[in-house]
């Protein structure tokens, strides 16, 4: 009588009997034996885990790079004032905005930028002249000291002129002898008072409004002791260009021409620095 063979061939797969041996089905519906299915990903046992590549291992072991510190605009060592233009003015406007100003970063140093500089100078106990020199630039850069060499720069002496201010005075002087004519700005021929000032400022790269009232409204009133060559000297209905000392260059109805003469009365002074 034949006997049942209870031996199994070596190496033959044995399927476990019972609940543990039932085929598990993955999320995709395929039968999987002896493994665990999580979602749609098949996770192999420890012996089947793929070794990490060197690049991945290096990435995992490398420390996380620190977050970059907040970058603050650093101003170049260049004096900036009303009429300046370019990338340095954009840096200035960005730095002022970091201090609470609300300027358009357009690279044009005009009335709003001028006012923001003066506000910054006022709150930081600096000379309030609207010019970004070593002291103001140093304060904006966070050092509070001059960038261009040791120490701090001395305040400009009264009535001294910068290159642009001198250019304004020189341009006005070049028109001495031109006749007075209301509403004109015709170099070598004729001017009215605001026509002369707008022409002279344009030669220094500064755009002024055309009428005298608009020019006065666009600038900043200063005392005579604070006035510098190139500023405006203003009387009711008339203005001229301060030439320093006690003189003004203006196109007046009397004597009917552009002249340089002694200041009279009690005018006010307006600056665009």
Automatic annotation (TrEMBL):
SUPFAM superfamilies: Cysteine proteinases, PGBD-like. Residues 153-164 have a biased composition (Low complexity). Pfam families: NLPC_P60, PG_binding_1. PROSITE patterns: NLPC_P60. Residues 140-166 are annotated as: Disordered. Signal peptide: none annotated. InterPro entries: NLP_P60_dom (IPR000064), Papain-like_cys_pep_sf (IPR038765), Peptidoglycan-bd-like (IPR002477), PG_Endopeptidase_C40 (IPR051794), PGBD-like_sf (IPR036365), PGBDSf (IPR036366). Keywords: Hydrolase, Protease, Thiol protease. Belongs to the peptidase C40 family. This is C40 family peptidase.
